[in-house]
Design a protein that fits this description.
With 343 residues, the chain is α/β, with parallel strands linked by helices. 39% of the residues lie in helices and 23% in strands. Helix 4 packs parallel to helix 5 (104-117). The longest helix has 21 residues, at 281-301. GO terms for molecular function: nucleotide binding; oxidoreductase activity.
C-alpha cells in the first residue's frame, strides 16, 4: 500500500468544512493534517471535529507544515491565484475550487507557474464525477445519441446571496461564479470547444445585488466548433429549491440529467401530486464531491495526472469571461477575439 497523502485545507467556509470532513472521514489514502482560515474560531472547530494536528490563521504557514504533500484551496475566488502560486512554489500538489482566477491573464500565469513547478493540479468541477453525468458521457461516447447537436443547461440557486459574496470583484459575477460548471460540462459532453458566445443578463429579483453591480439571471448562447449549439441559464432566485438540469440532444437520441425531486416519494391527495425538491449542493452532489477528492488522492498516490486539470479550468473560464463580456457589450463575441484582446 502506498503511504497516505498528507493534505491541508485552506479556507473553512461551507465548502472548506465539507472537504475537510470528507478528507478526514471518507477519502481512502488521505490524511488531513492541517487547516487554515483567517477565523481562529472555525480553525479550532475543525481541529476538534477532525482531530487535526495543526491549524493556522496564515495559509502560508500551513504550506510549511512538515510532511505536507498537498493543499486543498477553498477560499474566496479572489484569493485563489495568490494561494495557487504560493503552493506551487512550495512544491505542493494542488486541488482548488473553481475558478482558479478572475481573469484570463491570471489563469495563464498560474498554469505557467504550476507547469514550471511540476506539481499536480486539479480543479473542482465536481459535476464530472456525478454518476448521472458520467453515465451520460459514456452514452454519448458510445454513439448512443448520435452526433451531439444541442446542449442545454439550467443552474438555479435557491436563494439570493449576500452582496459581499456576489461582488464581481470577488466572485467574478453571476456568469463566472455559477455558469462555469455548465461551460465545463458543455465542452466535455459535446466533445467540442466553444467558439462563440452571446449573453443577456438582468437584475430582476435580488435587488440587494445592485449595491455591488451583479445580476441575478442570465442566458448564454454557445456555438461549438463542431457546429453544435448550446444554451445555459443561470439564476439566483429558484426559491423552490436547488435546480440543476442538463440535456444533450443528438442526431439519434438525447440524454437528460437531473430532476426536481429529491426523495423518491410522491404524495397524492385531492389537491394533486406533491413531492420535495433538491435542497442544495451537498444533497445533490455529495457523492460527486467525495469521488473527485478520491480521484485527486488516487492520482497522487499512483503518480498520475488528474483528469480535470488546468487546461480544463482555463477553457471553462475563458467561456465564462467571454460570455460576461458579451453580456456587457451587447453583441456576440468569439472566443478567439476574446483571447486576442487579452494577450
Amino acid at each position: 500500500m502506498a503511504a497516505p497523502i498528507h493534505i491541508g485545507v485552506i479556507g473553512l467556509g461551507r465548502m472548506g468544512m465539507l472537504y475537510a470532513r470528507l478528507l478526514a472521514t471518507q477519502v481512502e489514502g488521505a490524511r488531513l493534517i492541517a487547516v487554515a482560515d483567517t477565523n481562529r474560531q472555525v480553525c479550532e472547530q475543525a481541529v476538534q471535529a477532525f482531530s487535526v494536528r495543526s491549524d493556522f490563521t496564515d495559509p502560508t504557514e500551513l504550506l510549511r507544515t512538515p510532511g505536507l504533500d498537498a493543499v486543498l484551496i477553498a477560499t474566496p475566488t479572489s484569493t485563489h491565484a495568490e494561494l495557487i502560486l504560493a503552493a506551487a512554489q512550495a512544491g505542493k500538489a494542488i486541488f482548488c475550487e473553481k475558478p482558479l482566477a478572475l481573469t484570463y491573464e491570471e489563469h495563464r500565469r498560474l498554469l505557467q507557474a504550476v507547469e514550471r513547478a511540476r506539481v499536480p493540479l486539479q480543479v473542482g468541477f465536481m459535476r464530472r464525477f456525478d454518476a448521472a453525468y458520467q453515465q451520460a458521457k459514456a452514452l454519448i461516447e458510445e454513439g448512443r445519441i448520435g452526433r451531439p447537436t444541442t446542449f442545454k443547461a439550467i443552474s438555479r440557486d435557491p436563494f439570493c446571496p449576500r452582496p459581499e459574496f456576489a461582488d464581481p470583484t470577488k466572485s467574478g459575477g453571476l456568469i463566472v461564479d455559477m455558469g462555469i460548471h455548465d461551460f465545463d460540462l458543455a465542452r466535455w459532453l459535446v466533445g467540442s470547444e466553444v467558439e462563440r458566445v452571446s449573453a443577456e443578463g438582468s437584475l430582476l429579483v435580488c435587488q440587494n445585488l445592485a449595491a455591488v453591480g451583479d445580476i441575478d439571471n442570465a442566458l448564454v448562447t454557445l456555438r461549438f466548433a463542431s457546429g453544435a449549439l448550446g444554451n445555459v441559464e443561470v439564476s439566483r432566485n429558484a426559491f423552490y429549491g436547488y435546480d440543476i438540469r442538463t440535456e444533450v440532444l443528438g442526431s439519434e437520441g438525447a440524454v437528460l440529467i437531473g430532476a426536481h425531486q429529491h426523495t423518491p416519494l410522491l404524495f397524492l391527495d385531492r389537491t394533486g401530486a406533491q413531492h420535495d425538491v433538491q435542497p442544495y449542493l451537498s444533497e445533490r452532489f455529495g457523492n460527486a464531491y467525495l469521488k473527485q477528492l478520491q480521484h485527486f488522492v488516487d492520482c497522487l498516490r499512483h503518480d498520475q495526472s488528474p483528469a480535470v486539470g488546468g487546461a480544463d479550468a482555463l477553457a471553462a473560464c475563458e467561456i465564462a469571461l467571454a460570455a460576461t463580456e458579451a453580456c456587457r457589450i451587447g453583441h456576440p463575441l468569439s472566443i478567439e477575439a476574446f483571447r486576442q484582446a487579452h494577450q
